[in-house]
DNA sequence: TTCCATGCAAACACTTTGCACCGTG
DNA sequence: CACGGTGCAAAGTGTTTGCATGGAA
């Protein structure tokens, strides 16, 4: 798996460095994480990585389509790896829970946007804010 | 209209100041604007408003439900007034065009999220990134 | 041996906060 | 005349960049 990544990186003229691999692995491990959190995760293995390296790599990895980011809060961008099929996220404002949802649930919606507005949505980047059942109950 | 707002503001223990009114009006005038752009708009009328006042007021106005914000780019939050019916936005990554869409187009999608995940989406905050017809053509 | 990648520190963009003064209600 | 609002400047966050050095291909 990492080897696939390594190959893909090299074939784009980039190089595979230890830092890059650590960061990639951290994205994979954490699921959804901010640059800062990724740095912390990486530091568990090796303290020899700088925050700016994290940023630079996330940028590169995103260009190559190996990771994606979304916005959890208004402040924090969070990165996740692009492993399986495309999916999008539901985020509960109450508990910050993240629910990953497969593409089936949006297909119809996407089709409608395309038909009505000639607009092709980027499903992988889609983040829907709202409230989950637990938090609605709690609020009552 | 501004009077309704003024009333609503006062009844929450807040006060109606000239700055607050100018900012509210600017949000209304500009449609979708960043704090900085709002300041610029306000300055057309009166230079006596500070950026931090803009921030503080947007916070208050959002609490009161008079304005909302969304995220156009990854960096800039943009505010718009809550005037008519609820709507959400499509944003083209290519040209940054913003398309406002009424709630009909999402109803079905929203219903599905609620049925399948017990999740109630916040339609007014929804922002869908993607690409518009023009930009897709250009890319080809 | 060539460039891409890295560390470090400084620069940046955006937002928040402390404090003294001002003005609405 | 009490208390919320404002301006100003300084301090935070989070992210980006310039430069010299290091290392993958």
Largest sheet of chain A: 3 strands, mixed
Oligomerization:
homodimer
Strand order of the largest sheet of chain A: 4-3-6
How much of the sequence of chain A is in beta strands? 15-25%
CATH architectural grouping of the largest domain in chain A = Orthogonal Bundle
Query: How widely separated are the two ends of chain A?
Result: 46 Å
The gross shape of chain A turns out to be globular
Unreliable stretches covering 5 or more consecutive residues of chain A: none
Order of helices and strands of chain A: HHHHEEEEHEEH
Class by helix and strand content of chain A?
alpha+beta
So what's the CATH class of the largest domain in chain A? Mainly Alpha
Task: Characterise the protein shown here.
The structure is a homodimer of 140-residue chains. Chain A has 140 residues and is an alpha+beta fold. Chain A has 6 helices and 6 strands; from the N terminus they run H-H-H-H-E-E-E-E-H-E-E-H. Chain A has a 3-stranded mixed beta sheet with strand order 4-3-6. The longest helix of chain A has 14 residues. The first copy, chain A, starts with a helix and ends with a helix. The mean pLDDT of chain A is 89. Chains A and B meet through helix 5, strand 5 and strand 6 of A and helix 5, strand 5 and strand 6 of B. Chain A binds a DNA duplex (25 and 25 nucleotides) through helix 4.
Give a short summary of the structure.
The structure is a homodimer of 140-residue chains. By secondary structure, the first copy, chain A, is of the alpha+beta class. Chain A is built from six helices and six strands, in the order ααααββββαββα.
